[in-house]
Design a protein that fits this description.
Strand content: under 5%
Keywords: Membrane, Transmembrane, Transmembrane helix
Pfam families: DUF7649
Oligomer: single chain
Shape: elongated
Protein name: DUF7649 domain-containing protein
Distance between the termini: 52 Å
Largest sheet: none
């Protein structure tokens, strides 16, 4: 039953991720251009160069802002990762207490030492 729920959540996350993969790529490229424009604006020494890099930065910022819904794809990728981790998770069995008489003796000895 748990696997069916994980499968449904994973399928929804995968469809959401693949539906928004294009806008995610454009967001990444526009953020790289915005960062590059900012770095070049910092190094520019003339006013014309600074104006050029400001224009490039504004265009990249508008492109980034228009692709902000691509963050849904990032969230879907994270959900898909969590589903993958849960799917491959193995149950850890709690070690059964053994009926070893010496272990029982050591446990009682430790309790006796604590009481003294």
């Amino acid at each position: 039953m748990k696997k069916i729920g994980l499968f449904i959540i994973g399928a929804i996350a995968a469809v959401t991720l693949f539906a928004n993969i294009g806008s995610l790529a454009v967001l990444a490229v526009s953020l790289v251009i915005l960062y590059y424009a900012w770095k070049r604006w910092m190094k520019a020494d003339t006013t014309m160069k600074k104006l050029f890099w400001i224009a490039v930065g504004i265009i990249a910022f508008v492109a980034s802002a228009s692709n902000a819904p691509a963050l849904i794809a990032v969230a879907a990728a994270y959900v898909l990762y969590v589903v993958y981790k849960k799917w491959n998770e193995t149950k850890q069995m709690k070690p059964k207490e053994m009926d070893d008489p010496f272990a029982h003796f050591e446990k009682q000895w430790a309790e006796l030492e604590r009481s003294l």
